[in-house]
TrEMBL record:
Pfam families: ABC_tran (PF00005). PANTHER family: ABC TRANSPORTER ATP-BINDING PROTEIN. Keywords: ATP-binding, Nucleotide-binding, Transport. Residues 5-228 form the ABC transporter domain. InterPro entries: AAA+_ATPase, ABC_transporter-like_ATP-bd, ABC_transporter-like_CS, ABC_transporter_ATP-binding, P-loop_NTPase. PROSITE patterns: ABC_TRANSPORTER_1, ABC_TRANSPORTER_2. This is ABC transporter ATP-binding protein. One of its GO terms (molecular function) is ATP hydrolysis activity. CDD domains: ABC_DR_subfamily_A.
Amino acid sequence: MPSVITMEHVDKEYKGTHAVKDLSLHIEEGTVTALLGPNGAGKTTTVSMLLGLQKPTRGQIRILGGSPDQPEARQSVGAMLQDISVIDRLTVRETMDLFRSYYVNPLPLAHLLAISGLEKEQNKFATSLSGGQKRRLDFALAMAGDPKILYLDEPTVGMDVGSRQLFWESVRAMAGKGRTIILTTHYLDEADSIADRIIVINQGKVIADGTPAEIKAAQGHKMITFTAGEQLRPDSLEGLPGIADTVWSGRKVKLTSTDTDQLIRTLIQHNLDIRDIEISAGGLEDAFQTLIQGDAK
Ligand SMILES: Nc1ncnc2c1ncn2[C@@H]1O[C@H](COP(=O)(O)OP(=O)(O)OP(=O)(O)O)[C@@H](O)[C@H]1O
């Protein structure tokens, strides 16, 4: 698969902040890549350099073989950024038509109305839409030029459950047609279900890169959860072998372990006052927390 996006040793420094450090990435055509990281990790800065809105301090970025700020790249790229801006005194359909007019091969208006689920609102002023509806309009505007590459920076913030479903279905359908999608999100379950590849960034550096399954498996953690009876005190669990982490939420306890088979035997041997025991594989959320905590050490 050819790389449609390449970053080679990219750095971005603001006054006093080294936001992106020596980032090298190759993104293949037709893939969905999630950039994950805590607040301030450098995700938005990365997306904004890929869009040509900011220049790297050092390093090189190529989009479809050219510079991100060239007209060829701009015609082939769509973006949904964190700031929502709607134009005064234009209806939803007029706003979509205006954006369609910027491109050589725009998508049909009816298609944009369908993927945003805004058919009923098409004659309303864009300023009168709800927050979630404005996000959906933003998505349609990002898609107006039928982009080869789509950037989605925290796209589902403010969307209700139904809107999210429609949104991710449209994104998946787009990837199915060979489009390349880069997204950032703090909803890790969404990244887990939608992304082919996950890149975890912390303090401007890549600290993990793989499929969701690889990222989860690399951490090798599983969970034992149970309800603690009145007799069980937190110090009864301290020092038991095989516990990597313990979280109490009221009487619910979550133990993280690399060897849950051994740990469950230990809990039973100690005849602890516990019930409703469940063993589960760690999710992306747990893998993410472990990675970030590990990187801070
Ligand atoms: N225009 C700017 N001027 C100075 N510093 C900036 C600027 N933009 C971002 N930064 C800093 O660069 C770092 C990375 O910020 P960035 O917005 O890229 O992070 P992020 O991963 O997108 O975070 P979030 O999840 O909160 O959106 C932060 O320390 C931020 O304060």
